[in-house]
Design brief:
With 251 residues, the protein is an alpha+beta fold. Helices cover 22% and strands 26% of the residues. It is built from four helices and twelve strands. It is globular, with a radius of gyration of 33 Å.
Length: 251
């Protein structure tokens, strides 16, 4: 179509006349300014979705600490070995490892006792008789049992396996350094397996080092979730805390 040539009426729908639009400089500048204002608003949900998906991917890819555990052929041959220097627990049946897992032992002022012991008792839903919470009408406050005001509820110590009076293995945060008051903490995903593998009378040997440190414990990966937030206090002080523990599976 040549320049200046008119469009015949009726050649386009609705019998309307059309011409090439023209924009002046002011219109173009207003258009550019408006797009600068709108682009961040339009792209924000996209960036938010990208961050969310990236965060989910990072969460899903974070390592989960869950050591395999194996049923013994002869439960009477099971022996527990604890290395204080490595902070490792080896549940052995002869030379066969049934469970190898990291642990957290007592601080120097409250050390884990050394020596040869045996399992004295087992209690799945154990609570501390020394440290816990004062449950008041409108608050739940951490406290020692001797200083509790209101109703005292001990800190949960599930899968408790006592090896000498006042000391035992139990579920708890497994730090890379000693943190307990003498008990031996085992990761939440492994404590139930340990509990299932031992029985009353199972030997427990605790020393600065064990022969397995150089083999099974060499370069063994430790939990990295010890800094995670604590569970809500209403859950820690309720019976349902024990009901949500992970089921135990032995291979």
């Amino acid at each position: 179509m040549g320049q200046g040539q008119k469009v015949k009426e009726g050649s386009l729908p609705n019998h309307r006349k059309y011409r090439n639009p023209s924009f002046d400089k002011e219109t173009i500048l207003r258009f550019v300014a408006e797009m600068k204002r709108l682009i961040p608003i339009l792209l924000f949900p996209v960036f938010g979705l990208m961050l969310f998906l990236g965060g989910c991917a990072q969460f899903q890819n974070s390592p989960v600490y869950d050591s395999p555990a194996y049923k013994p052929h002869d439960p009477s041959k099971v022996v527990v070995k604890v290395s204080l220097s490595k902070q490792m627990v080896y549940v052995m049946e002869g030379r066969r490892p049934l469970l190898v897992t990291a642990c957290c032992v007592g601080v120097p002022s409250h050390p884990t006792p050394k020596g040869n012991f045996s399992v004295l008792s087992k209690q799945r839903n154990k609570r501390s008789g020394e440290y816990g919470f004062a449950v008041l009408r409108n608050a739940i406050l951490p406290c020692e049992a001797s200083n509790a005001h209101g109703h005292y509820v001990g800190y949960p110590m599930p899968y408790y396996v006592e090896f000498t009076p006042g000391y035992g293995f139990h579920l708890g945060w497994v730090w890379p350094v000693p943190k307990s008051h003498g008990c031996i903490r085992i990761h939440a995903n492994d404590a139930g397996k340990f509990f299932a593998l031992v029985r009353i009378g199972t030997p427990v040997r605790i020393a600065n080092a064990q022969a397995e440190d150089e083999t099974l414990g060499a370069n063994f990966k430790r939990p990295s979730d010890y800094g995670d937030p604590e569970l809500p206090l209403p859950l820690l002080t309720a019976q349902r805390y024990f009901e949500q523990l992970k089921p135990v599976i032995l291979q």
